Amino acid sequence: MVNLMSEVLTLEEMKHRYYGEWLIVACTELDDQMNPIRGEVVAHSHDRDTIYDAIANHRHQYVAQQNLPRTLAIEYVGNISTAIL
């Protein structure tokens, strides 16, 4: 699902709002190891393949149409053991 909101959230806020989902995050702040600290959730889904397909097929749209930063990250916010089952 594409998220049309342009709300900047911390990674902790994303975990609370989208727990158990895969996210595409347009990062507005990264730590020194390039991990997202905060950003905009531009897409989210319970299905990992949906997110990977979205990033592969629509990356240019997330950047150009929404005037987003160029750094996009894929994050899973939940219990990783349930995500791989």
What does this structure look like?
The protein has 85 residues and is an alpha+beta fold. The chain contains 3 helices and 4 strands; from the N terminus they run E-H-E-E-H-E-H. It has helices at 11-17, 48-64, 80-83, and strands at 8-10, 21-30, 36-45, 72-77. The protein has a 4-stranded antiparallel sheet with strand order 1-3-2-4. Strand 2 and strand 3 (36-45) form a beta hairpin. The longest helix has 17 residues, at 48-64. It is globular, with a radius of gyration of 12 Å.
What is the fold's blueprint, element by element?
Elements: E1 8-10, H1 11-17, E2 21-30, E3 36-45, H2 48-64, E4 72-77, H3 80-83
Antiparallel strand pairs: 1-3, 2-3, 2-4
Quaternary status: single chain
Q: How many helix segments? A: 3
Based on helices, strands and strand pairing, what is the structural class? alpha+beta
The percentage helix is: 25-40%
Alpha carbon gyration radius = 12 Å
Low-confidence stretches: none
Overall 3D shape: globular
Strand content: 25-35%
Tally of DSSP β-strands? 4
Straight-line N-to-C gap: 21 Å
Question: What would the keywords be for this entry?
Answer:
alpha+beta; 33% helix
Give a concise summary.
The protein is α+β, with helices and mostly antiparallel strands and 85 residues long. It is 33% helix and 34% strand.
